[in-house]
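Dear support,

I submitted the protein below through the web form. The confirmation email said the job was done, but the results page showed an empty box. After a refresh the structure appeared. I'm attaching both so you can tell me whether what I see now is the final result or a partial one.
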Amino acid sequence: MPSTYKKNTTLEERRLKSHKMITMYPDRLPIIIEMSPSSASYNQYINPMPKIKYLVPHDITMGQFVKIFREKIKIDASTALFFFINNKLFPMSSPIGNIYDSSKDDDGFLYIEFCEESTFGFNINTTIDDVTHNLVPSFTP
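What the results page shows now:
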């Protein structure tokens, strides 16, 4: 799915912004990160992301970036995050600079779409009564 940022900003504006960021911070990479519409909580996401543009050092790994991002948006530890770049998953050990070089957009940004899933398959708002009620078979004599 196309990025919301791409939809709302012209190609020329995006090119100018990424060029400005790279010029001002040559040791950093411009990244746009947005929640995927296929994410488990896309429609009920309560906390809007504080920002979508990040300047990231070339040499950190995808795993380090995920850790930093997780802290920024304050996501529960039981929630798994998956980061897609051009509909591909990259190993957490991959340096973000290598990913940027191979996958950046024509406008100079690297677009990352993240998806969150409950790793335990359990809705935090579900009560124990809801669970036990669903486990007890109905019996009609």
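Response: this is the final, complete result; the empty box was a page-load delay. The beta strands are 28-35, 53-57, 79-85, 88-89, 110-118.
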